[in-house]
Design a protein that fits this description.
Mean pLDDT: 82
CATH superfamily: P1 Nuclease
Strand order of the largest sheet: 4-3-5
Shape: globular
Helix content: 40-55%
Structural class: mainly alpha
Number of strands: 5
Low-confidence stretches: 1-15, 19-28
Oligomer: single chain
Number of helices: 12
Order of helices and strands: HHHHEHHHEEEHHHHEH
Number of domains: 1
CATH topology: P1 Nuclease
Protein backbone atom coordinates (compact mmCIF):
# COMPACT_ATOMS: atom_id res chain seq x y z
CA UNK A 1 0.00 0.00 0.00
CA UNK A 2 1.42 3.37 -0.99
CA UNK A 3 2.08 5.94 1.74
CA UNK A 4 -0.67 8.50 2.36
CA UNK A 5 1.58 11.51 1.97
CA UNK A 6 1.99 10.93 -1.76
CA UNK A 7 -1.65 11.84 -2.37
CA UNK A 8 -3.62 14.94 -1.48
CA UNK A 9 -6.58 13.02 0.03
CA UNK A 10 -9.92 13.53 -1.68
CA UNK A 11 -11.47 14.83 1.51
CA UNK A 12 -9.19 17.78 2.26
CA UNK A 13 -8.50 20.32 -0.53
CA UNK A 14 -11.82 22.11 0.05
CA UNK A 15 -10.41 23.24 3.39
CA UNK A 16 -8.01 25.53 1.62
CA UNK A 17 -10.31 26.82 -1.10
CA UNK A 18 -12.93 27.73 1.48
CA UNK A 19 -10.37 29.95 3.17
CA UNK A 20 -10.89 32.22 0.18
CA UNK A 21 -14.38 33.02 1.43
CA UNK A 22 -13.09 35.61 3.87
CA UNK A 23 -13.56 39.15 2.51
CA UNK A 24 -10.87 40.24 0.05
CA UNK A 25 -7.60 41.50 1.43
CA UNK A 26 -8.89 45.08 1.14
CA UNK A 27 -9.71 45.09 4.26
CA UNK A 28 -15.61 20.07 -3.92
CA UNK A 29 -18.37 11.88 -5.07
CA UNK A 30 -21.36 10.29 -3.78
CA UNK A 31 -23.46 11.91 -1.11
CA UNK A 32 -21.39 10.56 1.79
CA UNK A 33 -18.08 11.63 0.26
CA UNK A 34 -19.28 15.19 -0.31
CA UNK A 35 -20.70 15.45 3.20
CA UNK A 36 -17.40 14.23 4.65
CA UNK A 37 -15.42 16.78 2.64
CA UNK A 38 -17.40 19.62 4.12
CA UNK A 39 -17.58 18.27 7.66
CA UNK A 40 -13.79 18.33 7.71
CA UNK A 41 -13.58 21.68 5.93
CA UNK A 42 -15.84 23.40 8.45
CA UNK A 43 -13.44 22.59 11.28
CA UNK A 44 -10.54 24.35 9.55
CA UNK A 45 -12.24 27.53 8.36
CA UNK A 46 -10.86 30.79 9.64
CA UNK A 47 -13.20 32.91 11.75
CA UNK A 48 -13.92 35.23 8.81
CA UNK A 49 -14.44 32.36 6.39
CA UNK A 50 -16.79 30.60 8.80
CA UNK A 51 -18.82 33.80 9.19
CA UNK A 52 -19.02 34.19 5.42
CA UNK A 53 -20.16 30.60 5.00
CA UNK A 54 -22.86 31.07 7.64
CA UNK A 55 -24.05 34.24 5.92
CA UNK A 56 -24.28 32.51 2.55
CA UNK A 57 -25.87 29.21 3.55
CA UNK A 58 -29.60 28.86 2.87
CA UNK A 59 -31.89 28.43 5.86
CA UNK A 60 -32.45 24.78 4.90
CA UNK A 61 -28.78 24.04 5.68
CA UNK A 62 -29.38 24.39 9.41
CA UNK A 63 -26.10 26.26 9.74
CA UNK A 64 -24.02 23.35 8.42
CA UNK A 65 -22.16 23.55 5.12
CA UNK A 66 -21.95 19.76 4.93
CA UNK A 67 -25.70 19.42 4.47
CA UNK A 68 -25.46 21.40 1.23
CA UNK A 69 -22.37 19.79 -0.29
CA UNK A 70 -24.37 17.18 -2.26
CA UNK A 71 -26.63 19.96 -3.59
CA UNK A 72 -25.00 20.24 -7.02
CA UNK A 73 -25.92 16.62 -7.74
CA UNK A 74 -29.53 17.14 -6.68
CA UNK A 75 -30.02 19.99 -9.18
CA UNK A 76 -28.07 18.37 -12.01
CA UNK A 77 -31.13 17.59 -14.09
CA UNK A 78 -32.71 20.98 -13.42
CA UNK A 79 -29.54 22.91 -14.25
CA UNK A 80 -28.74 21.00 -17.44
CA UNK A 81 -26.02 23.47 -18.35
CA UNK A 82 -24.08 22.48 -15.21
CA UNK A 83 -23.83 18.76 -15.97
CA UNK A 84 -20.38 19.00 -17.68
CA UNK A 85 -19.02 20.94 -14.69
CA UNK A 86 -18.76 17.81 -12.55
CA UNK A 87 -15.91 16.25 -14.53
CA UNK A 88 -13.37 16.64 -17.28
CA UNK A 89 -12.68 14.07 -19.99
CA UNK A 90 -9.23 13.47 -21.43
CA UNK A 91 -7.82 11.34 -24.23
CA UNK A 92 -6.11 8.13 -23.15
CA UNK A 93 -2.78 9.89 -22.72
CA UNK A 94 -2.74 10.14 -18.91
CA UNK A 95 -2.34 13.90 -18.72
CA UNK A 96 -4.59 16.94 -18.44
CA UNK A 97 -4.33 20.07 -20.56
CA UNK A 98 -6.84 22.82 -19.92
CA UNK A 99 -6.92 24.14 -23.50
CA UNK A 100 -7.47 20.66 -24.92
CA UNK A 101 -9.75 19.10 -22.33
CA UNK A 102 -11.82 21.75 -20.52
CA UNK A 103 -14.91 22.17 -22.69
CA UNK A 104 -18.41 20.76 -23.05
CA UNK A 105 -19.77 18.72 -25.96
CA UNK A 106 -20.36 21.93 -27.92
CA UNK A 107 -16.76 23.03 -27.51
CA UNK A 108 -17.42 25.85 -25.01
CA UNK A 109 -14.15 26.44 -23.16
CA UNK A 110 -14.18 26.39 -19.39
CA UNK A 111 -17.15 24.04 -19.15
CA UNK A 112 -15.52 21.37 -17.02
CA UNK A 113 -14.83 20.83 -13.33
CA UNK A 114 -11.56 22.79 -13.47
CA UNK A 115 -13.19 25.75 -15.18
CA UNK A 116 -16.05 25.59 -12.68
CA UNK A 117 -13.70 25.71 -9.68
CA UNK A 118 -11.90 28.69 -11.20
CA UNK A 119 -15.17 30.46 -11.98
CA UNK A 120 -16.87 29.99 -8.62
CA UNK A 121 -13.69 30.84 -6.75
CA UNK A 122 -13.55 34.11 -8.70
CA UNK A 123 -17.19 34.81 -7.87
CA UNK A 124 -16.65 34.21 -4.16
CA UNK A 125 -13.80 36.71 -4.14
CA UNK A 126 -16.53 39.33 -4.57
CA UNK A 127 -18.03 38.45 -1.17
CA UNK A 128 -18.61 41.61 0.83
CA UNK A 129 -18.92 43.72 -2.31
CA UNK A 130 -21.91 44.58 -4.46
CA UNK A 131 -22.30 41.77 -6.98
CA UNK A 132 -24.87 40.25 -9.31
CA UNK A 133 -23.67 36.72 -8.55
CA UNK A 134 -25.73 34.32 -6.48
CA UNK A 135 -22.97 33.65 -3.98
CA UNK A 136 -25.00 31.06 -2.11
CA UNK A 137 -25.05 28.91 -5.23
CA UNK A 138 -21.41 29.78 -5.91
CA UNK A 139 -20.49 28.42 -2.47
CA UNK A 140 -22.49 25.23 -2.90
CA UNK A 141 -21.15 24.60 -6.39
CA UNK A 142 -17.55 25.19 -5.30
CA UNK A 143 -17.86 22.97 -2.24
CA UNK A 144 -19.16 20.18 -4.45
CA UNK A 145 -16.80 20.54 -7.40
CA UNK A 146 -13.65 20.55 -5.28
CA UNK A 147 -14.78 17.16 -4.03
CA UNK A 148 -15.50 15.98 -7.57
CA UNK A 149 -12.11 16.90 -9.02
CA UNK A 150 -10.38 14.81 -6.35
CA UNK A 151 -12.29 11.67 -7.28
CA UNK A 152 -9.82 10.33 -9.87
CA UNK A 153 -12.43 9.17 -12.40
CA UNK A 154 -13.97 12.65 -12.54
CA UNK A 155 -10.79 13.28 -14.54
CA UNK A 156 -11.00 10.16 -16.64
CA UNK A 157 -10.97 8.98 -20.23
CA UNK A 158 -13.49 10.33 -22.73
CA UNK A 159 -13.80 6.93 -24.43
CA UNK A 160 -15.33 5.29 -21.35
CA UNK A 161 -16.92 8.42 -19.84
CA UNK A 162 -14.71 8.34 -16.77
CA UNK A 163 -15.36 4.66 -16.14
CA UNK A 164 -19.14 4.91 -16.52
CA UNK A 165 -19.20 2.44 -19.42
CA UNK A 166 -16.90 -0.10 -17.74
CA UNK A 167 -19.12 -2.72 -16.12
CA UNK A 168 -17.64 -4.43 -13.04
CA UNK A 169 -18.82 -6.30 -9.97
CA UNK A 170 -18.19 -4.83 -6.54
CA UNK A 171 -18.13 -8.02 -4.56
CA UNK A 172 -21.33 -9.61 -5.95
CA UNK A 173 -23.09 -6.43 -6.97
CA UNK A 174 -23.03 -5.24 -10.57
CA UNK A 175 -21.85 -1.65 -10.94
CA UNK A 176 -19.75 0.54 -13.17
CA UNK A 177 -16.20 1.55 -12.36
CA UNK A 178 -17.13 5.20 -11.84
CA UNK A 179 -19.77 4.28 -9.26
CA UNK A 180 -17.24 2.12 -7.42
CA UNK A 181 -15.06 5.19 -6.92
CA UNK A 182 -17.95 7.57 -6.26
CA UNK A 183 -19.70 5.41 -3.68
CA UNK A 184 -18.66 1.80 -3.15
CA UNK A 185 -15.13 2.23 -1.80
CA UNK A 186 -16.21 4.82 0.79
CA UNK A 187 -19.30 2.84 1.81
CA UNK A 188 -17.25 -0.33 2.26
CA UNK A 189 -14.59 1.51 4.25
CA UNK A 190 -17.21 2.99 6.59
CA UNK A 191 -18.74 -0.45 7.13
CA UNK A 192 -15.52 -2.45 7.50
CA UNK A 193 -13.18 -0.02 9.26
CA UNK A 194 -15.40 2.52 11.08
CA UNK A 195 -18.23 0.46 12.58
CA UNK A 196 -20.70 1.73 9.97
CA UNK A 197 -20.25 5.29 11.24
CA UNK A 198 -19.44 8.11 8.86
CA UNK A 199 -18.85 10.41 11.84
CA UNK A 200 -16.21 8.02 13.18
CA UNK A 201 -14.42 8.07 9.84
CA UNK A 202 -14.59 11.86 9.75
CA UNK A 203 -13.12 12.15 13.25
CA UNK A 204 -10.33 9.74 12.33
CA UNK A 205 -9.46 11.81 9.28
CA UNK A 206 -9.49 15.00 11.35
CA UNK A 207 -7.05 13.35 13.74
CA UNK A 208 -4.81 12.41 10.83
CA UNK A 209 -4.81 16.04 9.69
CA UNK A 210 -3.42 17.19 13.01
CA UNK A 211 -1.14 14.19 13.32
CA UNK A 212 0.53 12.16 10.60
CA UNK A 213 -0.50 14.41 7.71
CA UNK A 214 0.04 17.77 9.41
CA UNK A 215 3.44 18.28 7.78
CA UNK A 216 1.82 17.98 4.34
CA UNK A 217 -0.83 20.67 4.76
CA UNK A 218 1.32 23.57 3.56
CA UNK A 219 2.22 21.59 0.46
CA UNK A 220 -1.41 20.74 -0.27
CA UNK A 221 -2.55 24.36 -0.22
CA UNK A 222 0.48 25.76 -2.04
CA UNK A 223 0.04 26.90 -5.61
CA UNK A 224 1.05 29.99 -7.53
CA UNK A 225 -2.46 31.34 -8.05
CA UNK A 226 -5.43 29.99 -6.09
CA UNK A 227 -7.78 31.37 -8.73
CA UNK A 228 -6.61 28.88 -11.33
CA UNK A 229 -3.41 26.91 -10.85
CA UNK A 230 -4.62 24.83 -7.90
CA UNK A 231 -7.56 23.46 -9.88
CA UNK A 232 -5.25 22.59 -12.76
CA UNK A 233 -2.93 20.83 -10.33
CA UNK A 234 -5.82 18.86 -8.85
CA UNK A 235 -6.86 17.64 -12.30
CA UNK A 236 -3.30 16.73 -13.26
CA UNK A 237 -3.02 14.73 -10.06
CA UNK A 238 -6.36 12.98 -10.54
CA UNK A 239 -5.67 11.82 -14.10
CA UNK A 240 -2.36 10.44 -12.85
CA UNK A 241 -4.18 8.42 -10.21
CA UNK A 242 -6.87 7.37 -12.67
CA UNK A 243 -4.24 5.91 -14.96
CA UNK A 244 -2.07 4.33 -12.29
CA UNK A 245 -4.72 3.09 -9.89
CA UNK A 246 -8.40 3.40 -10.89
CA UNK A 247 -8.01 1.95 -14.39
CA UNK A 248 -5.08 -0.33 -13.59
CA UNK A 249 -5.76 -3.98 -14.51
CA UNK A 250 -9.50 -3.32 -14.84
CA UNK A 251 -11.41 -5.09 -17.61
CA UNK A 252 -15.09 -5.29 -18.51
CA UNK A 253 -16.87 -7.67 -16.13
CA UNK A 254 -14.04 -7.94 -13.60
CA UNK A 255 -14.90 -8.53 -9.93
CA UNK A 256 -13.45 -5.92 -7.58
CA UNK A 257 -13.53 -5.92 -3.80
CA UNK A 258 -12.67 -8.81 -1.55
CA UNK A 259 -9.77 -9.47 0.75
CA UNK A 260 -7.36 -6.68 1.49
CA UNK A 261 -4.73 -7.61 -1.09
CA UNK A 262 -7.25 -6.95 -3.85
CA UNK A 263 -8.23 -3.85 -5.82
CA UNK A 264 -10.19 -1.98 -3.20
CA UNK A 265 -7.71 -2.22 -0.33
CA UNK A 266 -4.93 -1.24 -2.70
CA UNK A 267 -6.88 1.92 -3.55
CA UNK A 268 -8.66 2.92 -0.32
CA UNK A 269 -5.72 5.15 0.64
CA UNK A 270 -6.60 7.39 -2.33
CA UNK A 271 -10.00 8.06 -0.81
Amino acid sequence: MAPHHQRVPLLFPLVFLLLLLAPPRADAWGKEGHIMVCKIAEKYLSEKAAAAVQALLPESAGGELSTMCPWADTVRWHYHWASPLHYVNTPQVCNFKYSRDCHNSRGQEGMCVVGAINNYTDQLYSYGQKTSYNLTESLMFLAHFVGDVHQPLHVGFEDDEGGNTITVHWYRRKANLHHVWDVSIIDTAIKDFYNKSMDTMVETLKTNLTGGWSDDITHWENCENKHATCANDYAIESIHYSCNYAYKDVEQGITLGGRCYTYWCLNIWLV
